[in-house]
Design a protein that fits this description.
Layout lengths: L16 H7 L7 E6 L2 E6 L7 H8 L10 H8 L7
Antiparallel strand pairs: 1-2
């Protein structure tokens, strides 16, 4: 699938909705931009671990000032009865 797009003044390109839907790219999705010969490739970055909570806590929690137990928050959100 190919779509003709224009590059904005800041070098930004809008990824067409059809392509975003197919690739699962949504708002705030991290993407990898690379060069392959004369082609620019854009692909979504997928978590390195199978568990999203492990991925989140291993990346974004480093920016937090206080410890947050994301698993406990998820358990409370989904009504799981787990003792800590």
């Amino acid at each position: 699938m190919e779509k003709k797009m224009k590059v904005g003044s800041k070098g930004q390109v809008v990824i067409p909705k059809e392509i975003r839907d197919i690739t699962g790219i949504k708002e705030n999705t991290e993407v990898m931009v690379s060069l392959n010969g004369d082609k620019i490739l854009i692909k979504p970055v997928k978590p390195l671990t199978e568990s999203y909570s492990k991925y989140y806590t291993s990346t974004y929690s480093k920016k937090l000032k206080d410890y947050i137990d994301i698993n406990k928050i998820l358990d409370e959100e989904y009504g799981r009865n787990i003792l800590y």
